[in-house]
Amino acid sequence: METKIVSPTSKNIALCSDELRAGGLVAFPTETVYGLGANALDERAVKSIYDAKGRPGDNPLIVHLFDRAQIQEYAAEVPAYAEALIREFMPGPLTLVLKKKAVIPDCVTGKMGTIAVRLPSHPVARLLLRACNLPVCAPSANTSTKPSPTTAKHVLADLGGKLPYILDGGSCKIGVESTILDVSGTQPRLLRLGGVPCEELEKRLGQLEIVKSSDVPLCPGMKYKHYAPKAEVLFSAYYGGMHETICARYDRLVEVGKNPVILCLHANLGRYGDRNCMDVGQSYDEYAHNLFYDLRLADERRFNVVIAEGVEDTGIGAAIINRLVKASGGQII
Length: 333
Ligand code: TXA
Ligand code: MG
Description:
Blueprint: E1 4-6, H1 10-21, E2 26-28, E3 35-39, H2 43-53, E4 62-64, H3 71-74, E5 75-77, H4 80-89, E6 94-100, H5 106-109, E7 114-118, H6 123-132, E8 136-137, H7 152-159, E9 165-167, E10 179-182, E11 189-192, H8 198-205, E12 209-210, E13 232-235, H9 242-255, E14 260-264, E15 277-279, H10 284-300, E16 305-308, H11 316-327
Helix pairs in contact: 1-6, 10-11
Bound molecules: threonylcarbamoyladenylate and magnesium ion (MG).
Threonylcarbamoyladenylate (TXA) binds next to strand 6 and strand 7.
């Protein structure tokens, strides 16, 4: 199958909407990362997502909706505190896990008895969801274990030949996936750090229990290898002496014949002398925006080790740390 990257004209939105309605796959941009969408009510279409990604079948999918009112169609129960979050954060980079209704097939939800729902705010995602008028399940549109795609070209590189259309919405603003909050029990639990900082949720909910990756199968995706480029990834803890540690490790890697690159904030470039660096931007928001992009770029540029600067564990920084811990397989220097 030929895969085309198409611009989001009304004609192409209609084409992609028809494709979804006919049981096909369409990749589309969201404000977090690109998603690989299928009709969540069509089991065959859902299964083709798992095949295309090489995704383990027990890892459930997030259902993407256009309208807040649709949540009631698929969720059996929405607690009052979740209603307030829906009003405040949706559309946006927040996914809620709720008790599910039977209408959503088990192959979407991994037989969890719950459903993860999200209303993306990206205008192209919204145009597509409105046009097809379906619940669209969509994981990140990468091959399993690869960094999530933040451009249409990333999707093509991973999934080219496996779907007809990739809607091009430019590069995803946030760059890391949505925050996942489980509101299916009596207490809310944070299953994945992401686009909505934990502190924002805690302002409304009080201190949140953050579920560790080891507490599977609450969020089954967290147990798998993730976000890994071909290059080995090392990641520094954030502390005063971080830059010296990174330089020393870089120099040792060069001595043993490696070709490393440092991912660093713009302001820190000067600390690394003439060592190879990739500038991730001026702020943590820019670091998040560029992280997956730069991990892929490091492979393209044939670096074989990426040393990523650590950040403070606040705001979007917490999501950056979480992705780096996973990309590095926990190799923290
Ligand atoms: O930003 C995002 O959330 C992106 C865009 C495309 O919307 N999507 C995304 O999907 O990151 P994916 O499949 O790559 O990650 C979804 C995560 C997985 O770790 C999965 O285990 C978890 O959500 N998940 C899905 N349904 C769940 C459920 N019912 N209960 C607990 N975890 C669930
Ligand atoms: Mg993913």
